[in-house]
Amino acid sequence: MGKGDVKTKRGKINRGTYGVRRRRKIRKRRPVEEQVSVDTKK
């Protein structure tokens, strides 16, 4: 139950892996309108 234990958060940090105990941060996707830069005003 420490750095050597792969099932714990500390063990995941030590190994540099991710899983249920250590989630990745979710990046919010930009709306499609922002990416394409569509001019909606006429």
From TrEMBL:
Protein keywords: Ribonucleoprotein, Ribosomal protein
Residue spans of biased composition, Basic residues class: 20-30
Domain of life: Bacteria
Name of the featured protein: 30S ribosomal protein THX
Family assignment from sequence similarity: Belongs to the bacterial ribosomal protein bTHX family.
Organism, as annotated: Robertkochia marina
Disordered: annotated span: 1-42
InterPro entries on file: Ribosomal_bTHX/bTHXc/bTHXm
GO cellular component: ribonucleoprotein complex; ribosome
